[in-house]
């Protein structure tokens, strides 16, 4: 008996449409459908979406969410715009206290914090502002902090092929502050180390010392 080619099931069809985390994403629904979804949420909360204060809320929420997740529509190539330079240096480059804003993928509530990013060049350096822009690109997505930290490190490692990369992210999660356990003042720290930062404890310790040096003055 010859079996015909099986048809993909519905889950497979859906999975093929789901966004991949490291590619530019195209919307699967229209902006009007998004606005209607916000309107439905307001109704579910017992609100009247037609009252004066909420009449334009669906439009505003969609606009805000698109801005807060605009990192899905950026690529590293566009972001860098050629700002990688050949330089004969092998000393640590550190940009610390980079303001970082993201959104928790579990509750779509803010993640507010800072990133500290270092690398040791191996013949190539990157414009310093591009390090902040890489953090911003990955931050403006629905995230968990562990993935965000690793994505920043892996992006630099892939772009520059340096001797090593180290990233520390320190952030407060509003899903822990405003709801749930409701613990204002709690912070989460995550790190990702690559290359010499992973292999050499002294290099890693130098990085950790520098990100905390004179912090009271900032």
From TrEMBL:
<dbReference type="GO" id="GO:0006729">
    <property type="term" value="P:tetrahydrobiopterin biosynthetic process"/>
</dbReference>
<keyword id="KW-0479">Metal-binding</keyword>
<keyword id="KW-0342">GTP-binding</keyword>
<keyword id="KW-0378">Hydrolase</keyword>
<dbReference type="InterPro" id="IPR020602">
    <property type="entry name" value="GTP_CycHdrlase_I_dom"/>
</dbReference>
<dbReference type="InterPro" id="IPR043133">
    <property type="entry name" value="GTP-CH-I_C/QueF"/>
</dbReference>
<dbReference type="GO" id="GO:0005737">
    <property type="term" value="C:cytoplasm"/>
</dbReference>
<protein>
    <recommendedName>
        <fullName>GTP cyclohydrolase 1</fullName>
        <ecNumber>3.5.4.16</ecNumber>
    </recommendedName>
</protein>
<feature type="binding site">
    <location>
        <position position="175"/>
    </location>
    <ligand>
        <name>Zn(2+)</name>
    </ligand>
</feature>
<keyword id="KW-0547">Nucleotide-binding</keyword>
<feature type="domain" description="GTP cyclohydrolase I">
    <location>
        <begin position="35"/>
        <end position="211"/>
    </location>
</feature>
<dbReference type="GO" id="GO:0005525">
    <property type="term" value="F:GTP binding"/>
</dbReference>
<dbReference type="GO" id="GO:0008270">
    <property type="term" value="F:zinc ion binding"/>
</dbReference>
<comment type="pathway">
    <text>Cofactor biosynthesis; 7,8-dihydroneopterin triphosphate biosynthesis; 7,8-dihydroneopterin triphosphate from GTP: step 1/1.</text>
</comment>
<dbReference type="InterPro" id="IPR043134">
    <property type="entry name" value="GTP-CH-I_N"/>
</dbReference>
<dbReference type="GO" id="GO:0046654">
    <property type="term" value="P:tetrahydrofolate biosynthetic process"/>
</dbReference>
<dbReference type="InterPro" id="IPR018234">
    <property type="entry name" value="GTP_CycHdrlase_I_CS"/>
</dbReference>
<feature type="binding site">
    <location>
        <position position="104"/>
    </location>
    <ligand>
        <name>Zn(2+)</name>
    </ligand>
</feature>
<dbReference type="Pfam" id="PF01227">
    <property type="entry name" value="GTP_cyclohydroI"/>
</dbReference>
<dbReference type="GO" id="GO:0003934">
    <property type="term" value="F:GTP cyclohydrolase I activity"/>
</dbReference>
<comment type="similarity">
    <text>Belongs to the GTP cyclohydrolase I family.</text>
</comment>
<dbReference type="GO" id="GO:0006730">
    <property type="term" value="P:one-carbon metabolic process"/>
</dbReference>
<comment type="subunit">
    <text>Homopolymer.</text>
</comment>
<feature type="binding site">
    <location>
        <position position="107"/>
    </location>
    <ligand>
        <name>Zn(2+)</name>
    </ligand>
</feature>
<keyword id="KW-0862">Zinc</keyword>
<dbReference type="InterPro" id="IPR001474">
    <property type="entry name" value="GTP_CycHdrlase_I"/>
</dbReference>
<keyword id="KW-0554">One-carbon metabolism</keyword>
